[in-house]
Amino acid sequence: MKKGASKSGSFMSFMEEKFLPVAAQLGSQRHLLALRDGVVMVMPLLILGAFSMIIAEFPIEGFLNLMASIFGENWNAFEGVIMNATYGISAIVACFGVASSLVNSYGENGTPAGIIAMAAFFAVVVPTTLTGAEGEAVDAWVAGSLDATLLFTALLTALIVGEIYRFLVQKNFTIKLPDSVPKAVSAQFTALLPGTAIIVLFTVVRLVFASTPWGGFPEFVTDIISTPLRHLGTSYIGTLVVCFFEHLLWSFGLHGSAIIVFPIFEPLWIINMAENVSAGAHNIVTFTFYENGVWMGGSGATLPVVIYMLLFAKSKLLKNVGKVGIAPGIFNINEPVTFGLPIVLNPILMIPYILAPMAAMSVQFLGTAVGLFPLCNNMVPWTCPVLISGFLTTGSIMGVVAQLCGMAVSFLIWLPFIRVWDKKCYQDELSTVTA
Description:
Helix 2 packs across helix 12. Strands 1-2 form a two-stranded antiparallel ribbon. By secondary structure, the chain is mainly alpha-helical. The protein has 2 domains: 196 residues, no CATH class; 170 residues, no CATH class.
């Protein structure tokens, strides 16, 4: 027993001394934070677009026939309008958000940088040549060239623009106006010289890449950076590794989702979902797949164990945690469980906390791969209750079945560990009363 305790203590000491400082630095890295903030700005648009898709393509024939009889055959034409207004501009919104957040982190005004980043993005995205009403050639940016399929190009552009802008501003490469000029006006002149330099630079980038085999900067980013990263990060093994490290960080009290998922992998999963929606691709791992197939009750797939504690726990601690945790757990918020049991820095409960979501993800991935479960292509808020979210994200009752299977596997992994912890807490409470 002492030998096992010694090994456990050595592992915890190693993680606290070597791993956690590196993870904490990664979590506070300004570029990753900027990526997270920029992508988060896109979420409301994706959710709104997904709801329009759910309504327009609701998987009940009677509902569709009823709507058509009331509003006409083209009643669902609003779907295309809303999708273009939401999904269709997601890359632009993310570009603005990342650049402005990055420059803000340096203590400078990030709004001009966000605007310049959008201009730079338009500079490198080559318009499509269309035929006008009278047969003349017209250059235009079509909706498909500004959506999440170019998200990686937008993010990379935003990071480059943000760094160049803050460097030039901090080196006083700006136009200074008298103090009597309103700040709103002087701020725009402050951005004039840096903006000019950046737009000229990205125009040159566009011209240079036009003469390469890729034909453009976005195509270069997609072929050389985005596609290889997506193949790695959205594969089964890649997603499994992401899930492991996310929950390992959470187990030590660090926000694993904010450190790993949001800034690094969420953009890749959003691109996968956009390809499924717009191009009929069959990417299994999308952000909504991970969000609703892993975070069932919150990180660690803890909703099944909360139900167990509420109904079957013997110790007062677990009963109380179950009572407090059930309401937020239904909406995928599990801080009462994570810090109340506690799971953080608990060698017993860290094991199922890490393994359960990995198992749940595996079941749903393999089930989707063989065609048993449908793809998750509809974005819903992460607080949407389990089972409801399974239906909404897939438009199928089999999405509910997928979540039930994931919860069942999670519960089987949690069960022996939560029983051991319940027994230990119960005995500690009895000994305290006796003493």
